[in-house]
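A further point concerns the way the authors explain their paired sequence and structure data. Showing the layout once, in full, would remove most of the difficulty. For illustration, here is how one protein appears when written out as sequence plus structure tokens:
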Amino acid sequence: MRKLITGLREFKASYFSTHQELFEQLSHGQKPRVLFITCSDSRIDPNLITQTEVGELFVIRNAGNIIPPYGAANGGEGASLEYAIHALDIQQIVVCGHSHCGAMKGLLKLEKLREEMPLVYEWLKHAEATRRLVKENYSAYQGEELLEIAIAENVLTQIENLKTYPVVHSRLYQGKLKIYGWVYHIETGEVLAYDVNTHTYAPPQSQLSDAEEDAMDKKYTSTSAPPVACDLPHRHHTDANAGNGSQEKIPAVSWLSPEQANRIYRGAAQTK
């Protein structure tokens, strides 16, 4: 507590005193540009990683950056979402997961939470679509690799959930809203963004127009962050070696070779 009180004094004496004009403007209302949906985890700070000022982001935070489908819950997520788009006219949404997410760890062992943390158990059930997808399509993975996949897939699940809200559905139809999926890597400080065209996670600069990218410093156009799961479940590769004229479908994951994908999604027992 002493550290917090000291911080309050330092804020008033330093940051606030040098940004008085900004706070005067904010006292008359807010006009955030982006709705930023992320985890409650203390290791991620939306304003810090994006280097945005107070008032630029409207933030929703909870365990696992989960947005329950419309009508599934009466929590603050839906109300905050509706307010951000309808009242504040926000036109960009970012759903940002992060590495080493405790909520996703819990999701992968959900039944163990039923007695230990029943409220967490009930909350994470809103991410059942993520759990089921990972369980049935990534059974060859385990440990940190499986967790990384769950984190990335959960971001895509929440984007689909967002689209069930009438206000989001309407604005998307009008072309007045864009939704982005990010994964922040705590250990490298880098962010990867989901690319709907390539179905991969790539540096977020890839989502900028040519003019916007040219205006940026070139040192920000590459990343050394590790690969993450990158595909929607309905996309598939076709196995050209399938017999009897049939073409068996296996999920496409761009950071796996065709041989690896075939081995993983057919099952190890069928490989030589």
Observations:
- The first strand starts at residue 34 and ends at 39.
- Strands lie at 34-39, 57-62, 92-98, 178-185, 190-195, 200-202, 236-238, 249-251.
